[in-house]
Structure formats: structure tokens, C-alpha cells
Write a structure and sequence with these properties.
The chain is of the alpha+beta class and 158 residues long. The chain has one domain: Structural Genomics Hypothetical 15.5 Kd Protein In mrcA-pckA Intergenic Region, Chain A. 15% of the residues lie in helices and 30% in strands. It has a seven-stranded antiparallel β-sheet with strand order 4-3-5-6-1-2-7. The chain is globular, with a radius of gyration of 17 Å. The relative contact order is 0.26.
Length: 158
């Protein structure tokens, strides 16, 4: 990998079964040496979500609890888990096969499912800052449903 290359990913907000057709997606580019934590950070922020919950990457897209390969933030904060952490896992060590996919599970309570698909390397112009969002498509739901939506609460006094 050269200094003027980044790794491209398509991040798609999926349903719990991994369906992605017609769903919002973001294409991003990130440095290959970055961690999975950095990949999760740009992925979550690309959908205007706050990175305020635990997350993990899993190779079983339809049933993350049955994954054979995974990386979890829990391991980085000292909890015993089946999988290693996301902070030391390098993107270029985890993603190496064209079209390879992993589930990025964000917020184990609400279970936001993002399909992270490896698109390959991409040439980056000198001085171009990474990570960055290359393409954005589709409307994204509010991370917290209706919470904080003033219009929703205007009629309560009536």
C-alpha cells in the first residue's frame, strides 16, 4: 500500500436481517493503518449519529451472536469478551478481500445494523485528509426516534 492510497468502504444502514436494497448508504475512504475504532467512528458519524454507545464488528451479518470473527469495544474497556478489541485491530488486517462484508452493530440496546463492505484501495491526492465521506445517499432515521423533536411534543397540552 502506497502513501497516496486509502481504503474505500460502502456503509449501508440495514435491517436486522442484513437487507440493504434501497437503504441509505455512505461511501467513505480511510487510511489502511487506521483502527476498526476509527472505521466505526467515521461510519457512525456519516449517518449523523452520535458515537455514544458500544459497538462491534461481526462476520455473521444475519446473526451476530453466532459470529466466528468479531471485534468489540467491550474488550478495549476491560470486559471479558469472546473477541479482541477494536482499538488495536487494523483495517488492513481485517479487510483484505474484495466485496468482503462485516456487520457493524452499534448500540446493543437499539441494535443499529450497518453493513460495512470493503470496496478496495483508492488513490488519494496528496494533502487530502482522511477519513472522509465520498458519497452520501438516502435519508437516515433519527438515532433516538422522536426524542428531542419539539414538533412531536407541541400538542401535549391540548
Amino acid at each position: 500500500m502506497k502513501n497516496n492510497e486509502g481504503i474505500a468502504f460502502k456503509i449501508t444502514l440495514s435491517d436486522r436481517n442484513g437487507a440493504v436494497r434501497g437503504r441509505p448508504f455512505r461511501n467513505i475512504v480511510i487510511a489502511a493503518e487506521d483502527s476498526l475504532y476509527a472505521l466505526a467512528e467515521i461510519s457512525i458519524e456519516a449517518f449523523d449519529f452520535d458515537l455514544d454507545h458500544a459497538f462491534g464488528f461481526y462476520d455473521n451479518i444475519k446473526n451476530w451472536t453466532r459470529s466466528e470473527e468479531g471485534y468489540e469495544l467491550f474488550a478495549d474497556i476491560g470486559e471479558k469478551t469472546k473477541f479482541p478489541g477494536v482499538n488495536r485491530a487494523k483495517i488492513n488486517k481485517v479487510f483484505h478481500t474484495p466485496k468482503q462484508k462485516m456487520l457493524l452493530l452499534f448500540d446493543y440496546g437499539d441494535e443499529w445494523h450497518f453493513i460495512v463492505q470493503y470496496l478496495g484501495t483508492i488513490e488519494v491526492s496528496p494533502g487530502q485528509k482522511l477519513p472522509r465521506i465520498m458519497e452520501s445517499d438516502g435519508e437516515v432515521p433519527n438515532q433516538y426516534g422522536g426524542f428531542g423533536d419539539e414538533e412531536e411534543y407541541e400538542d401535549e397540552d391540548e
